[in-house]
Specification:
Strand content: 5-15%
CATH class of the largest domain: Mainly Alpha
Helix content: 40-55%
Largest sheet: 3 strands, antiparallel
Number of domains: 2
CATH superfamily of the largest domain: lambda repressor-like DNA-binding domains
Strand order of the largest sheet: 2-1-3
CATH architecture of the largest domain: Orthogonal Bundle
Number of strands: 3
Shape: elongated
CATH topology of the largest domain: 434 Repressor (Amino-terminal Domain)
Radius of gyration: 26 Å
Structural class: alpha+beta
Number of helices: 6
């Protein structure tokens, strides 16, 4: 529910569950200039069951995850290579583009570096 009160110098907007006593107080204080707008609760949807999520999840590859996590942490391609024990920048670039596969050992190290599940990189 939303309650809206407009006067030349006052505008009050309250959203969410508004107790009856407050609605009565607003009506008593402001009379006919107060407007109550009842909003219907929208049905909640489990996003993991939506077609959009399934399509999006299918498109996210380990290569894309590597690039996303690296950029989220503000790292250049050189830095994860250093953190992995001297992997060249070009190898990181190739992994991000899907040209070079991410080995299980590398995926485990990346999962530790980014503090995520190893499955993100497999």
């Amino acid at each position: 529910m939303q309650a809206v009160v407009k006067t030349p110098h006052i505008e009050i907007s309250i959203k969410g569950h508004i107790p009856d006593w407050l609605l009565s107080l607003l009506k008593e204080e402001y009379g006919e200039i107060v407007t109550f707008i009842e909003e219907l609760d929208k049905a909640k949807v489990n996003i993991f069951e939506t077609e959009w999520y399934q399509k999006t999840k299918a498109k996210v590859t380990p290569a894309i995850n590597l690039k996303i996590y690296r950029e989220m942490h503000g790292l250049t391609q050189e830095k994860p290579g250093e953190m992995l024990g001297g992997v060249p920048r070009q190898h990181i670039s190739n992994m991000e583009r899907g040209i070079r596969a991410i080995s299980v050992k590398t995926a485990q190290k990346l999962a530790q570096i980014f503090n995520v599940s190893v499955e993100k990189f497999l």
